[in-house]
Design brief:
alpha+beta; PRC-brl_dom; about 25% strand; Antigen; about 140 residues; PRC_barrel-like_sf
């Protein structure tokens, strides 16, 4: 795995990130969309392209990370459970404890639309299971 040269200011941002579900604040869609996502090592994982609401709860269920591609062409979209993220104090960076390999192997959606149709519950179970298995592995290492 290549060593990432992370600027000191960004290291401080990552270290200051707190779980999104534990923060006593609301998040606006316009502050989340386009936000860069990095892992704790500072490796870029993509940026937030969409957010998916649960039809059962009406709350954010997933953030969809856009990865790769050029100007949106060939980009892959990976939904990740909302509670897997940490946010920096000004929400200018989101932190996800995942490797490139984990992101590459994650379930994908067609630019976020696949989970908006019928069958959200079944599709979300697949996504949740993947991240449950891979996030616990990441934290165990």
């Amino acid at each position: 795995m290549p060593i990432v040269d992370v600027p000191y200011w960004q290291q401080r941002q990552i270290a200051a990130a707190q779980p999104v579900t534990g923060q006593n604040k609301s998040f606006r869609s316009d502050e989340l969309l386009g936000t860069e996502v990095r892992n704790p090592k500072g490796e870029a994982l993509g940026s937030i392209e969409d957010l998916l609401m649960s039809p059962q709860t009406g709350k954010i269920a997933y953030l969809v990370i856009g990865r790769g591609g050029v100007f949106g062409i060939g980009e892959k979209y990976v939904p990740v459970p909302w509670d897997s993220f940490e946010a920096t104090p000004n929400v200018d960076l989101l932190v996800l404890d995942a490797s490139e390999q984990t992101m590459n192997g994650g379930p994908q959606v067609a630019d976020g639309r696949a989970m908006r149709t019928n069958g959200f519950e079944q599709k979300s179970q697949k996504v949740d299971e993947y991240w449950k298995n891979h996030m616990s592995n990441a934290k165990g290492n």
